[in-house]
Amino acid sequence: RQDNINILVSPSGFKESLDPKATADHIEAGILRVVSNATIVKAPLVDSGEGFVEALVAATNGSLEKLTVMGPTGKLIPSHYGFLGGDRPKTAVIEMAASAGLRLVPKDLRDPGFTTTFGVGQTILAALEAGPQQILLGCGDSGTCDAGVGMA
């Protein structure tokens, strides 16, 4: 007989493979295969890189906005930013990884003289058009080395 067990699953992602939410979902599925009556609480952790926006939006019951920007290699890519929910000043949340992340740069194009953060600047401009009082910018998991010049 198994007593009900409570388990907290708080992973970060696996770079270039699974984001924190997907990692938590897979860990949960594995646990439930072994301990079917477990109560699982998922709290994916992020370090301001991949998953930063989704984690903060989910934690505050905020909103996710989608857009198309120039990726780090100059091609158009889908990206996103968000707004925190709740009773607080209107706050936009942006992650560099969504527009200029390492996973967006093919291995043969990983040249710091070539990649750009221009798409991050496009994301900031899109967020500013919605009139936030503040912006949180997560800079983890960048696939660029232009010191943010491209987003300026």
How is this structure best described in words?
The chain is an alpha/beta fold and about 150 residues long. The protein is built from four helices and six strands; from the N terminus they run βαβαβββααβ. Helix 1 (about 20-35) links the parallel strand 1 (about 5-10) and strand 2 (about 40).
Helix coverage percent of residues?
25-40%
Q: How would you sum up the global shape?
A: flat
Q: What is the mean pLDDT? A: 91
List the total number of helices: 4
What is the spatial order of strands in the main beta sheet?
3-4-5-6
Provide the succession of SSEs: EHEHEEEHHE
Spans of at least 5 consecutive residues with low confidence? none
Please report the distance between the alpha carbons of the first and last residues: 61 Å
Q: Main beta sheet, described?
A: 4 strands, mixed
Q: How many distinct beta strands?
A: 6
> How much of the polypeptide forms β-strand, as a percent range?
15-25%
| Content-based structural category | alpha/beta
Radius of gyration: 18 Å
Layout of secondary structure:
Layout: E1 6-9, H1 20-34, E2 39-42, H2 52-60, E3 63-70, E4 76-83, E5 91-95, H3 96-100, H4 118-129, E6 134-138
Parallel strand pairs: 1-2, 5-6
Antiparallel strand pairs: 3-4, 4-5
